[in-house]
């Protein structure tokens, strides 16, 4: 009986996420789409499961001349949301942060993750801000582990700007043909780039 309930929950979760994804996507044509993008970018940095790219991509394709404005709104709102995530980790970890991380499947590995995070703090923020890794995990962890706020904000700003402006730039230059690459492959490209960059710095350290 317990196994059946768990199976039902697993089935329901992807359906709920898909509905949430479709609902979020539907706001791309809303007259106040920029404000919706700002809101989604803000809450995605602390708890919302759908990334801002879902809104950004159709918005830039519909109005390429506003690509840089769209990327700027997503960047600033995402960093502001990151500060909110930081506050959750610092001030309300047990009440809010822990349930959010548990929902993301990261709750059981917090102690090990904290050790690694303290060692690679800025790198962790930069990598999570660019790659598909849930940025909210890093924002909450930053507050929980008392990572200095100013380095956190600056590294988050660099990472989110890099990600959103690259996406906006690709869409502005290449248009709809690049959309499939962005949705399916760009996250992997960012991840490989970060791995190579961190690996290069580690090699330089050893040498």
Automatic annotation (TrEMBL):
The chain crosses the membrane at residues 33-50, 70-93, 120-144, 150-174, 186-204. The keyword Nucleus does not apply. Keywords: Membrane, Transmembrane, Transmembrane helix. Residues 51-170 form the VTT domain. InterPro entries: DedA_domain, VTT_dom. One of its GO terms (cellular component) is plasma membrane. It comes from the Bacteria. This is VTT domain-containing protein.
């Amino acid at each position: 009986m317990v196994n059946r309930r768990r199976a039902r929950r697993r089935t329901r979760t992807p359906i709920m996420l898909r509905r949430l994804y479709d609902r979020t996507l539907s706001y791309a044509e809303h007259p106040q789409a920029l404000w919706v993008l700002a809101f989604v970018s803000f809450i995605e940095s602390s708890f919302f499961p759908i990334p801002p790219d879902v809104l950004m991509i159709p918005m830039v394709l519909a109005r390429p001349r506003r690509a840089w404005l769209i990327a700027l709104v997503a960047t600033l709102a995402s960093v502001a949301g990151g500060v909110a995530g930081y506050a959750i980790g610092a001030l309300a970890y047990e009440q809010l942060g822990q349930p959010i991380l548990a929902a993301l499947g990261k709750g059981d590995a917090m102690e090990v993750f904290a050790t690694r995070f303290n060692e690679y703090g800025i790198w962790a923020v930069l990598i999570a801000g660019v790659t598909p890794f849930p940025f909210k995990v890093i924002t909450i962890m930053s507050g929980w582990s008392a990572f200095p706020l100013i380095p956190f904000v600056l590294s988050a700003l660099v990472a989110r700007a890099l990600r959103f402006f690259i996406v906006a730039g690709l869409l502005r230059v290449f248009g709809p043909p690049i959309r499939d690459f962005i949705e399916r492959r760009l996250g992997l490209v960012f991840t490989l780039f970060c791995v190579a960059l961190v690996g290069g710095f580690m090699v330089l350290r050893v040498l």
